[in-house]
Structure formats: C-alpha cells, structure tokens
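Interim report to the steering committee. The following record documents the input for Phosphomannomutase/phosphoglucomutase (454 residues).
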Amino acid sequence: MAADLSQLVKAYDVRGVVPDQWDEPLAELFGAAFVQVTGASAIVTGHDMRPSSPGLSAAFARGAAARGVDVTEIGLCSTDQLYYASGSLNLPGAMFTASHNPAQYNGIKMCRAGAAPVGQDTGLAEVRALVEEWSETGGPEPAATTGTTTRRDTLGDYAAYLRALVDLTAIRPLKVVVDAGNGMGGHTVPTVFEGLPLDLVPMYFELDGTFPNHEANPLDPANLVDLQQRVREESADLGIAFDGDADRCFVVDENGDPVSPSAITALVASRELAKHGGKGTVIHNLITSWSVPEVVKENGGTPVRTRVGHSFIKAEMARTGAIFGGEHSAHYYFADFWNADTGMLAALHVLAALGGQDGTLSALVAQYDRYAASGEINSTVDDQTARLAAVRAAYEGQDGVTLDELDGLTITAADWWFNVRPSNTEPLLRLNAEAREEAMMAKVRDDVLGIIRG
C-alpha cells in the first residue's frame, strides 16, 4: 500500500504529525528520494530541538547513505544555520523542523546546493512521487557502496560569518531581551551575541520541543506578551523574539510595542543599500507597507513587488540580482546569505542601527512606519471564489481605484489599499489593509470584512 502524502507534502516543505502522518521509515525514503532528485554525491542535514527530530534526521541520513551519498550531519541548528552550511559547503541540505507548529508536528525544509529552495516546482513533487512509489515497492535498490556519515559543528563558523556582514564594533552598549520560545534561538543567540556590547536578558533559552511556556510563533500577539512585559520591567532598549527554528525574528521597542516587519524591512533595506553604494534591487511582497518601496526609492534602490511566499521572493532575488528581500511575516532574505532568509542577520542589523545612534528604537523606526495597517485578518468562508468575486464587484469600476491579481485581489486608491488572498490549505480569506490615516484604514477594513463575511 503506497503512503498517502497528500496531507504531508506542502507547497514548500514536508510537514505533519509524528507518528500519525509520518515516521522514521518514511524519513528514510525521503532521504533516498532527495538524493536521487538532486543528483547529489554529498548532502548536509540538521535538526531542531523537537523530541522526534534526531531520529527522523538520522533516518533521512541512512536513506541517503544507502544510495551511496556522503552525509555531513551538523546536528542541532537553526534553519538559517542549515542554510549557512548548504551555502558554505555548496551541498544540498535538509533541515528537520516544523518551525512554529505544535510539538507533535515535524517536517523537512529541503534545499539544493547553495541554499537554493526546493518546492513543488523545483523538485518536491518528484521527491513525493518517488517516496509514494517506494513505499509500495519496499524501497529503492541500495548502492553498491554505502556513503559515509560524519558529524560537523558549524555554529561557530555560522556566527562568525554573520558577524562579518554587519559592523557592530562601534555600537553603544544596549540592553536586549531575547525570547527564544524554547526554540533554536536558545542555541544560536549565545554564540552569535558573544563579545558584543550587549546586556543580554535571555528568556526561555532551554531547548524544549514541547514548548512549555508559549508557542514559538511570534506572529501571534499572544506569544509576545511575556517579552513585552520583560522589556518594560528591565527598562531594556529592545526585545527580540525568534520562532521555533529561529529563521524569523520579531522586534519590540523600548516601550514593549511591536515593530512591524514592514518597518524592519525598510530599515534593513536602507542599510543594505548604503552598503552597496545607494544602488540595488530590494524585493518586497505585496502585503508589506507602502513605506517599503518608498524608503527603497529614497535610498537610491529599485523596489520589486512579488507574491507572498519564500519561493517567489527567492526566485525574484535570483532573477533581478537583488541585494535584500523582506516579507510581512518577518522573513528577511539577503544576497550575502545565498538569497536565503535569516532572522538573525536582520536582528544584527537592528542592533547596529540602534547602537549606532543615541535615540530610542521607537524614534528610529518612526521614519519607516508611516501608515496605519490592519495586520492580517482571517475569515472562514464557505466559498472563497464567490466571496472574492463579491469583493471585486464592490470596487471594480470606481473612480480612482486600481485592481490587480498578482496574488489574490489587491485594490488600491490614493489614500488606502487592501489585499484579499485565499489560503491554499484552509477555507480562509486573508485580509490586509493599509491607509494614510487610522480612521480611513478602519473604515476600509470593516467595509471589506462586511463583504467577505456576508
């Protein structure tokens, strides 16, 4: 009986409940399939702190080695540390993590050599087809010679590489609270921050894949509450929260107020453009604030707007030779990091920007946070297509209003815009709205929600 992977293999990765949806024997088949699809003679693997991660990662390595491929295991790591290993060693890589999902989940983020993404259109569909076939036939033929498996510690090299990309030598002392959410930030932050003029206040640095304190998903405001309170109690200069696999970072200012990922995107874009002589392309998805393309242009750069999703961002970065890319979900992509996303490098930029002047973070980011935004609002609907069509009908043909369908439906006027996108995996429509004034944003948001929710 072939395994049913329809609920397990997503658009960009493998993700599901262990052992209900997948287990170590299936992970072994994924390892064999991955090396066949990539044509690799050697790969690198890493894993997060979830209880099932070491076993799944080892099984994947066995499957690859059985096909004659040499495996470098870097063990416990953040996702961007795995991307560092893939880029610096020029090897395809596999990271075992379910990011911010609950403890019973696990998954695989795969990349080709140089951290190039593997998604449905770039090899993941072929991997899935092979695993389904082999689960029915009993597996692939083993190679004549089994590949070797070696351990390698890359944490120090990863930290040194990031530190070389951002000059932090002249910053003033800063007090920073970091909430690792019991995820991989607890593994990477102490080494990356070592020796910097930072008074580090650690929260939940103990690696614990059962997430005893709160979910490791800072996109949910409920998971920032502890950090916000601690920043105020400590009179800290800022707070930083990482998600479970520590590839995304969220920032709160000295008052404990969240700084929007759009403002961080604009801040980092301005710094990257300065580093490149005021020239370069910056990628942003269509949910980021109007302020992002404005700041990019003001700093001499060329903004390019894309669909939501890391595969689209990375593809556009490669196509345009972009120096940086940012998303509303706090993923930040750097040409200096093989076009891959690294929240840690974004965090270092924020520390360098704040520490390079005497003002507060709230004052620093005010120049990048220019508009009133709704944030992402999800609505469960019976018929995504019909509700989207109803929104379109309500605005199409109005004077001064433009419409585009790059990703869902975006309606733009002189003083406001909104985007409605269907979820690929759930019966949801996602609304993001922004306006020049708070009252106008609230009106647009409520008008559109009235149509979506009937």
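The chain has a mean pLDDT of 96. The committee is asked to note this result when reviewing the revised timeline.
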